[in-house]
Automatic annotation (TrEMBL):
Pathway(s) the chain acts in: Antibiotic biosynthesis
Domain Methyltransferase MycE N-terminal: 6-111
Keyword list, A-Z: Antibiotic biosynthesis, Methyltransferase, S-adenosyl-L-methionine, Transferase
GO-annotated biological processes: methylation
Domain of life: Bacteria
Pfam families, sorted: Methyltransf_24, MycE_N
Organism of derivation: Nocardia callitridis
A GO term for molecular function: methyltransferase activity
Protein name: Class I SAM-dependent methyltransferase
SUPFAM superfamilies (UniProt xref): S-adenosyl-L-methionine-dependent methyltransferases (SSF53335)
Length: 386
């Protein structure tokens, strides 16, 4: 299923021919089942007074399939066997190719005119039911269409509804995340978050749920010291790993990476932050981001921090300071063989208690190291010396 999902996430922006190859190799039923599961995940909670069944008729060349969605007010939309339908109140028609694009395409893709619609295909025996049927069908359709549409949730609201503490709690991170994550939002990214959360027996997983909704084409992985595989579902996987174990982190990244985004929201112990960065940054894709949260612990001695106004070199903020130096290694004197981070860090953006490290090729060369006063004078930048 994971391999099929990986292919589907990329197929949303692929050509008709590439989608046809995917369907041929994976089978129409498997592809449709994966898409329907995502539609059900995204669909909003309906508020229709009366139960409503809506049919979605899918075509792929000569093949056809009917999927029936049942909407009951106050309960999640479900899929039912077509034969078990009480009464089809609306019949939507769409090609499988268009469905792939509606679910896993880009937000800015044109999607008008890609489906047919028949409202109340059969005349009700009792016309006194008609006003209620129209109202309930319209409401149920709205809930289903949220599942058939590329989502554009505001991250702060998603954070609150998902149970994450990244906003309106101890932190106000979501504004920074929206700014930094905007270029990745419509891409088939792989995200790893260190720390799944949960206290007093609670499984946690609020942030995983938030990222899954925010990045509609993402595969989201979380790691924790404890088994939280009960949170597993399509596009969301909980793994057991100790962030203080560099070998375990590397093995996990080799199996599930490389990643476009890594977020450290783990123990916040300064030693663990540095171990995790050193182990996982090599498995961030070029153009990706490594995020470190809760850097206030750099000033808390019991968590490996430094008391006073300047965080020490072994803290998370010390790490960020070093990465700023690494970003400018071309200007170092004397020159030395560049380290991995000197070669690969192209951006360091720090906000209150959170930092984003961008990976790429640090190939910009500044002022040549041989430039001395005589060379500057030749350029007219310095007055001649006696």
């Amino acid at each position: 299923m994971s391999e099929l999902l990986d292919r589907l996430l990329r197929a949303g922006t692929a050509s008709d021919a590439e989608i046809a190859v995917l369907v041929k190799e994976e089978g129409m039923d498997a592809v449709l089942a994966a898409l329907v599961e995502e539609v059900l995940f995204r669909a909003s909670l309906p508020n229709n007074p009366d139960p409503v069944d809506i049919a979605l008729d899918i075509t792929h060349y000569a093949e056809t399939r009917r999927v029936v969605f049942r909407s009951v007010g106050g309960e999640p939309v479900t899929r039912v066997d077509g034969d078990a339908s009480r009464e089809i109140c609306r019949a939507l028609g769409m090609s499988l190719t268009h469905l792939v694009r509606r679910v896993y395409g880009r937000f800015d893709q044109r999607r008008t005119g890609d489906f047919s619609d028949v409202f109340l295909p059969s005349r009700p025996d009792d016309l006194s039911r008609l006003p209620g049927l129209v109202d309930s069908t319209s409401r149920a359709s709205g809930a289903l269409m949220t599942g058939l549409t590329i989502p554009r949730h505001e991250l702060g609201a998603l954070c609150s509804s998902s149970g994450s503490d990244k906003w309106a709690s101890f932190h106000w991170y979501t504004g920074h995340y929206e700014r930094e994550f905007a270029p990745y939002r419509d891409e088939p990214v792989r995200i790893l978050e260190i720390g799944i959360g949960g206290f007093d027996g609670d499984l946690g997983g609020g942030s995983l749920r938030m990222w899954k909704r925010y990045f509609h084409r993402a595969q989201v992985f979380g790691i924790d010291l404890f088994d939280k595989s009960a949170l597993d579902e399509p596009r969301q996987t909980a793994l057991v790993c100790d962030q203080s174990d560099p070998a375990a982190l590397a093995a996990l990244a080799q199996e599930h990476g490389p990643f476009d985004i890594v977020i450290d929201d783990g123990s916040h112990e300064n030693e663990h932050v540095r171990i995790s960065f050193d182990a996982l940054f090599p498995y961030v894709r070029p153009g990706g981001l490594y995020v470190i949260e809760d850097m206030q612990t750099a000033y808390i001695p019991r968590m490996g921090g430094t008391e006073g106004p300047s965080a020490g070199a072994d803290t998370s903020i010390g790490l960020i300071k070093r990465l700023v130096d690494d970003l400018h290694y071309h200007e170092h004197s004397p020159a030395s063989v560049p380290t991995a981070t000197q070669q690969d860090v192209v951006g360091v953006r720090a906000y209150r208690n959170i930092a984003f490290v961008e990976k790429g090729t640090n190939g910009e060369v500044g002022i040549p190291p041989w430039m001395d006063d005589a060379a500057w004078a030749a350029l007219g930048a310095l007055p001649p010396t006696d």
